[in-house]
Design brief:
Layout: H1 2-21, H2 25-42, E1 49-53, H3 56-60, E2 75-78, H4 85-101, H5 107-126, H6 145-159, H7 162-170, H8 187-199, H9 206-219, E3 229-230, E4 236-237, H10 243-263, E5 268-271, E6 274-277, H11 278-283
Antiparallel strand pairs: 1-2, 3-4, 5-6
Helix pairs in contact: 1-2, 1-4, 2-4, 4-5, 4-6, 5-6, 6-7, 6-8, 8-9, 8-10
Length: about 290
């Protein structure tokens, strides 16, 4: 849920003019506010975040209207003694990104979102621990470092506070080459946001630019470091299960990173001996 709020907000920060031209800005703001409000209400103290309602295994065995549900409404939460840095940091990222969306439209609400985001990030970082509350159903397989970097990048973008960039720079050893961007693995998103800052002159973020390039190379047919296959029709084939969610999120990264490179005057991405132009990168999405 928090990841969805993050991506909807990212779409607005990058494509507000286009969304507005399609008369969808009000709708997407309403969706973001709905999700953000839920996260705000779930954040009941500086070190308490309610993370889930219900037993996922039981719920998935019975598809029905919420009004008819009689499965257990078990509550899960994270605290300082039972941490879950992944979910706290992702909630921080979501609220920071949403605060940008409402900065002009509703400045008081934007400030509130940012305050909670900072508290959640501090909670996630100070009480580091992997979220195991409802495993084996909703587990973190990538660890919590990706969410901490992702949240720090959004907090910098929302606040302009250089301490968040310094956090990312001092923890660049966490950054990994990946071929997936998903609700569980945020490295490619963090790398894309931080690569933009590198291209604007923040040279201590060079590893994130390398990571963002690596993500492109992992997806591009003909790349020497290709990791993702395509279907006969050209669709990225990342996972056997629920593939389109990974295709959609990967496509978003490729589009936004292409936009970032164009703005920085960079013509493409070098993958081994082969150079992929911005046009070629975008063609994989057609």
């Amino acid at each position: 849920m928090a990841f969805s709020v993050s991506l909807l907000s990212w779409a607005v920060t990058e494509y507000q003019t286009e969304i507005s031209a399609a008369n969808q800005l009000g709708h997407i703001r309403s969706a973001i506010r709905w999700g953000a409000e839920y996260l705000l209400r779930a954040h009941t103290s500086s070190t308490t975040l309610y993370t889930q309602v219900g037993d996922a295994n039981r719920d998935h065995q019975c598809w029905e209207r919420p009004e008819d549900m009689d499965t257990p409404r078990t509550l899960y939460k994270i605290t300082s003694s039972s941490p879950g840095s992944e979910v706290a940091a992702e909630a921080a990222a979501a609220l920071a990104a949403a605060s940008i969306v409402f900065k002009v439209a509703d400045s008081k609400y934007s400030d509130r979102l940012l305050r909670h985001s900072k508290l959640l990030f501090e909670f996630a970082d100070k009480f580091r621990g992997s979220y195991q509350g409802s495993c084996p159903f909703y587990c973190s397989y990538s660890g919590y470092q990706d969410e901490l970097l992702w949240a720090a990048a959004w907090l910098y973008k929302a606040s302009g506070d250089n301490s968040y960039l310094n956090y990312a720079a001092s923890n660049d050893g966490w950054s990994q080459a990946v071929s997936e961007f998903s609700w569980d693995n945020k490295f490619a998103g963090a790398q894309t946001l931080l690569a933009k800052e590198f291209l604007k002159g923040k040279t201590n973020l060079a590893k994130y630019k390398t990571g963002a390039d690596s993500f492109v190379c992992a997806l591009m047919p003909g790349s020497s470091s290709l990791q993702i296959k395509t279907t006969p029709g050209g669709l990225l084939y990342i996972r056997d299960s629920s593939n389109l969610q990974y295709v959609t999120s990967s496509s978003m990264i490729l589009l936004i990173y292409s936009k970032i490179l164009i703005s920085a005057g960079v013509r493409g991405v070098q993958c081994g001996s082969k150079d992929f132009s911005i046009t070629t990168i975008k063609e994989i999405l057609e």
